[in-house]
Amino acid sequence: MCGIVAYIGERKAYPILIKGLQRLEYRGYDSAGVALVNGSINSYKRMGKVKDLEEFVGDSSTDGTIGIGHTRWATHGEPNDTNAHPHTSMNGKFTLVHNGIIENYAHLKKELVNRGYDFKSETDTEVLVNFIENIYLEQKVDAELAVRVALSKVVGAYGLVISCADEKDKLIAARKGSPLVIGVGQNEYFLGSDASPIIEYTDQVIYMNDEDVAILTKEDLVLKNIQNDAQKPKIQKVELTIDEIDKGDYEHYMLKEIYEQPTSIMDTIRGRITMDKSKIFLGGINDEMQKLTTAKRIIIVACGTSWHAGMVGEYLFEEFARVPVEVEYASEFRYRNPVINSDDVLIAISQSGETADTLAAIKMAKEQGATIIGICNVVGSSIPRETHAGVYTHAGVEIGVASTKAFTSQVTALMMMAFTIGQKRGSLYDELYKQLINELTLVPEKIKTILEKTADIKDIASLYKDANNALYLGRGYLFPVALEGALKLKEISYIHAEGYPAAEMKHGPIALIDENMPVFVVATKDKSYEKIVSNIQEVKARNGKVIAVVTEGDTTIKKMADHVIEVPDCHEAIAPLLTVIPLQIISYHIAVLRGCDVDQPRNLAKSVTVE
After folding, report:
1. N or C: which end of the chain has fewer CB within 10 A?
2. Is 570 a catalytic site residue?
């Protein structure tokens, strides 16, 4: 969601902050701002993009070697200049930037109003900065203690960087439920919501834990928790390069990431399949393999695209490992009173490793004794640290808000897990086990052949760019692909789209079909093929426009559909990795042709770190 960047050191802070905010733009935001410490604290903030902030700053003073910056995704209060961060307390003692939500802000605000505080914005963040100031002034304590006392009384999630007007040589950072990374340099420190604003300057980072408080000067870092207990900073090397966060010659990050999928899938597989393709070895879950192979039930929790990957996982685990699976939206699971047993395994899927609802679901299941396995892309993020074991996807940084390579890497990881557990449980016989491994290794090359058809897919996109609605149909393994295809179209092109199991079309959605309705059908050769052919005939009988993703050489559907996109033949369990690619490409081109901001679609954020 929101993005934080901060700097304290010998360099001029403003260029570092602006560049950092630009690198955080992918997270989704509606306003941006900076505060610079130089004798006084000068704040500049503006609704709109980072470039609008730069224009607003213009020739104003940007001196100072200490500063904080922020991109805001609106929660409390509409997007405008006043609600943008940073926020400064009424008496000017504290200025801060904040990611997260303060849930008890209304109660705190009422108390502060009774004590004479006035508020300019509608934000919970302005309440927090005034609450800290009030403690500072009334209790006559230093800035650090005022922050720790305030945070012990607030309810909610936060990533904070704070400057105090009376202690201008330091920054205070705090984290609970919203990620913060500290970059360690020579007599300088950098802070970011993730590592992307930091990697140009240092590859040495500290991932803050929940309830950590960091006090930073140019020369020193002190890490403690809210209770004032000293914490030992763990410095790690971040495996991220500038090249990875650069668009290169691609028009959009999303397009770059679509084309990176042969590499990202191979990187997910790399080192985990033996040279003779006879065995999968997943070292990250090896210590928990006994629990995985004896589990009475697997629960998969995720949100958005990761939930669709989990749906594919359900089919895989039930078919090959013969273990019951439930796939849950983390946002619903955490607020129910679900039955969780000590012999259950919960698999949490998240690209960022910071998804708030998924983290909360993990903690709840952990408290009830379940074994927690993570599937995550970002090394050092919160979910890997909360789980008992897991599998990193190694997909590389994904900047486009619409997930593409994250989905296929997650599905690849789930395939390897399902095949491994099935083989160990004796429900997947050796010949098929080896066949599936071999087919999985062939996927990157097969995706390359699909990418060669991009121009043809773009031609199809041009015919449907003005559609108002679209339907996506699939069966079995391809039903979650239909859901994912519909999500991609709606989130970047703003065309209303829905995914359905093909047979469910007759239970309502068929009423929508007419000559203006594009119907995307994922229909490769599998056990449901004849059934989905019948569904296509039903659509055509009502004058619907059919765009079908089919197996190479298919002649039956080719005669019925208005357009076909062929993908290489494969085992039906592998098909999601191939069939989703054309749907990503067509969504991308429809969005571009409609003039949409593909990488930063309206109202969306890359990583949902608040409820």
Report:
1. C
2. no
